[in-house]
Amino acid sequence: MHKVVIIGSGPAGFTAAIYTARANLQPLVLEGGFLPNGELMTPGGQLMITSEVENYPGFPEGITGPELVDRCREQSKRFGADHRDAVAEEVDFSGFPLRVKVEGAWLSAATVIIATGANARWLGLPSEQQYLNRGVSACATCDGAFFKDRELMVIGGGDSAMEEALFLTRYASRVTIVHRRESFRASKIMAERALQHPKITVEWNSELEEILGDGQRVTGVRLNSTIGLPNRDLPCGGVFVAIGHTPSTGIFQGHIDLRPDGYVQVHGMTGTNRKGVFVAGDCADSRYRQAITAAGMGCMAALDAEKLVEAYEAEGLLAH
Ligand code: NAP
C-alpha cells in the first residue's frame, strides 16, 4: 500500500511531494496526462504556460514557469518521490484503504493529496477555438509579447482581466476591456489602475459574440450589446479571454464534498470530508491562486498526511 499518493504536479503537488518524500513516505506522484474523458491534466499545471514568475521568493531575477516546475520535480526526486506520467482515472474514497485507479489498475493508499489545479475558462465560441493560439489566448504573460503594437481586446471584468489588460499595455498600442455589465467585479485598486491607464479603454455592457478573422489570424471582434444597442464590429489583432478558472475536480464528484462552483470543499486547513484525503492548491482555492500559496498549502497537506500516516502506523494499520 502506498503511504501517500499525490494527484497533480503544480507547485502544490510538488511541494507535497518534497515534504512527504523527505519524511521518507515514498510518495507516488501522478503528474498528469489525458483523463479518460479526453481532458488534459497538464503535467506541471498552469506554470507550464507562464513565461516569467517574478514573485516566487528566492528568484530575484525571476524564473520561467517551466523551469520552476523542472526544479521542483528534481527536488522531490532527490528525496525518493516516484513520479509517473499518469492520471488518476477513478477514485474510491469510501473506506480504508483509499483506492485510486491508474492505467486501468487500482492502487491502495493510506492517504491521498489532491492537487489537480484549475484551468482557464473559455467563452465556448467556435471562433474562439478556431483562432486559439492564432490571436486568441487566455494568458497575457505567455503570449503578450507576440502582440507588439497591436490593438487588443481583453474579455472579463474581474482582477484577472485587469491584470491581463495592464500587462498587455507593455506591448499593445491600445487595450480594450470588454465587460458584460457596467461595473467591474475586480478589486477597487485594480479597477482604478486599469481605468486610469492612458492605453486602456472599456466597452461596457458588451459581450463578445464572435471573433473575426481572415482564416489565419484575428482581425477584429463582433460585440453584442447587453442593453439592446446594435452589434458592433471593432478591429483588433488579438483577444485575451480572462473570465475566470475552472477547477479540475471532475473525477472527485460524488467522492468528496465539492463547493457549488466545483472547488474542493476544505474541512479544517487541508482536509476533505473523507479521512485521509487532503487537498492543496488551486483546485481548492478560487481566491489567491498563486504559485506560492499553492506551494504553502501543499506543504500543509503533506504535514497533515504525514501525521495521519504516523497514527496509522501506531495503530498497526500500516507497516513502518
Ligand atoms: P472572477 O473574479 O470570477 O471574474 C470573472 C469575470 O469574468 C467577471 O467580471 C465576469 O463577469 C466575467 N465573466 C464570466 N463569465 C463570463 C462570460 N461567459 N462572458 C463574459 N464575461 C464573463 O475571476 P478572476 O478575475 O479570474 O479572479 C478570480 C479570483 O482571483 C478573484 O478572487 C480575484 O480577486 C483573484 N485574482 C487576484 C489577482 C490580483 O490581485 N493580482 C489577479 C487575478 C485574480 P461578471 O462580473 O458580470 O460576473
Task: Chart the SSEs and their pairings.
Elements: E1 2-7, H1 11-22, E2 28-30, E3 33-34, E4 40-41, H2 65-78, E5 82-84, E6 90-92, E7 98-102, E8 105-114, E9 118-120, H3 126-130, E10 136-137, H4 140-143, E11 151-155, H5 159-168, E12 174-178, H6 188-195, E13 200-203, E14 206-213, E15 218-225, E16 232-235, E17 238-241, E18 245-247, E19 277-279, H7 291-315
Parallel strand pairs: 1-2, 1-8, 2-5, 8-19, 10-17, 11-12, 11-17, 12-13
Antiparallel strand pairs: 3-4, 6-7, 7-8, 9-18, 14-15, 15-16
Helix pairs in contact: 1-2, 1-7, 5-6
This protein binds NADP nicotinamide-adenine-dinucleotide phosphate.
Describe it for me?
- With 320 residues, the protein is of the alpha/beta class.
- The chain has helices at residues 11-22, 65-78, 126-130, 140-143, 159-168, 188-195, 291-315; strands at residues 2-7, 28-30, 33-34, 40-41, 82-84, 90-92, 98-102, 105-114, 118-120, 136-137, 151-155, 174-178, 200-203, 206-213, 218-225, 232-235, 238-241, 245-247, 277-279.
- Strands 1, 2, 5, 6, 7, 8 and 19 form a seven-stranded mixed sheet that branches. The protein has a five-stranded parallel sheet with strand order 10-17-11-12-13, covered by helices on one side. Strands 14-15-16 form a three-stranded antiparallel sheet.
- α1 packs parallel to α2 (65-78), α1 (11-22) packs parallel to α7 (291-315) and α5 packs parallel to α6 (188-195).
- The termini are close together.
- The mean pLDDT is 95.
- The structure holds NADP nicotinamide-adenine-dinucleotide phosphate.
- NADP nicotinamide-adenine-dinucleotide phosphate binds at residues 123, 155-161, 163, 180-181, 185, 187, 207, 243-245, 286-287, 289.
